[in-house]
Amino acid sequence: MAKPVRQWDQTAPTLLWAHQIRRENIHLVDQIDRTRTDLASTTTTTNNVKKSVTDLEQRIQVLSSGVGDLEKKLDQVDGRATQRLEALSSLLESSREENIRLKERLEGAEKVFHDQSRLMKGTIRDEVMAEMRMMLGRELSSIRCGVVVGTGITKTTENEPDLVPDSIPMDEANPPLERKYLEQQLTQATFGDPSEYDEQSLSHDGNELKRKHNNQPETDLHRLMKQNGRGLAEYFSFAESTRMKLPPRRREGLVVEAVVAGLDDLKVRDLLERQMDDAGWSWDVLAALLRGMVREQERKTFDIQSAEAGTVHATTNGTAVKPRQRKRRRFIPIVPADDEDDLI
User: Fold this and answer.
1) I need a surface site. Which of 14, 147, 256, 340 has the fewest CB within 10 A?
2) Is residue 282 part of a domain?
3) Is the residue at 141 inside a domain?
4) Where is this region: Disordered (predicted)?
């Protein structure tokens, strides 16, 4: 049975539905196109990301191999550095041991040298003193007998002393005063100026004190610190140099007392003792007081010399001012009058 064909009804609502469906299809087609475009761009981006990831993986592999090489090199350098440090440590230790051995040998050689030099000095000094005493004994006995040396003329006195033979020592033949004078002259003539001799011997003894400070008695320091006729400035310089040779723990107290006790001038010593009783017994106080005394002595010496030369300088605020020289007046001689002038 055939279906009946319906005629087109332009007024039916199907026309509206068809138009609506067509609009939706167009909208869906547009969305599909946009989705396709986005998918293509996403695919491209994904491929680029994959390529970048591949490059990064390759770089990471290269860096990993480089890091491995660096670690190997670092291990090698560390091993070589450790070996060199061990070698240097052993070399340093052997150098220290060698230095200690050389120092001990040097100290022993210095001790032997000083002992031998002292022994030789003592022997030579005794021999020279004995020879000089014999010579001076002969000269003195000749003088007492009235013998004029070098002329052959002899003189006799009322109280002619007995001749003293060479076998009798000078200590028994000479009085105490003459014996003291002769020994002093003999020492100066044989061994030079006592101040220079004391400086050399005391510098050597100062080194001995520095090396054997624990075994030296306190009397040695008092024996070293003697002025022995030197000036105050020279004695202070000598005391300061000797003090610097002592260990740090012995640079106060006993040294200060020895320096003060070694002064020749009793007035200066008493003045220093009174001032240090007030200010304190320390090296800084002693150095300041001695420098002040040295400056005062120099100022007095300068004033005396200036006064003797006639150029005494006045002082203005502690500064020396040269005095003004007075102008010399011209001297005009008076011509005596002639006889003709007297007649007029």
Assistant:
1) 340
2) yes
3) no
4) 193-218
Residue 280: name the closest of 307, 311, 257, 247 by CA. Answer: 257
Q: CA–CA separation, 165 vs 138, rounded Å?
A: 8
Predicted structure pTM score: 0.30
Terminal C-alpha separation, the chain: 206
Yes or no: say if 190 and 155 are a contact pair by the CB < 8 Å rule.
Answer: no
Please give the Cα distance from 284 to 152 (Å, whole number).
65
Distance (Å, whole) CA 82 – CA 70: 18
Tokens of 209: 């004190």
Helix, strand, coil percentages (3-state) for the chain, rounded to 5, are 70, 0, 25
Distance CA 221, CA 255 (A): 7
Total domains present in the chain = 1
The answer for residues whose C-beta is within 8 angstroms of residue 155's C-beta and 6 or more apart is: 146, 147, 148
Asked, for residue 288, whether it belongs to a domain, the answer is yes
Q: What token pair was written down for 230?
A: 């030197």
For 24-90, give the DSSP string: HHHHHHHHHHHHHHHHHHHHHHHHHHHHHHHHHHHHHHHHHHHHHHHHHHHHHHHHHHHHHHHHHHH
* 84 within some domain: no
Give the domain extent around 237.
Answer: 226-308
What does the block give as tokens for 341? 């002038």
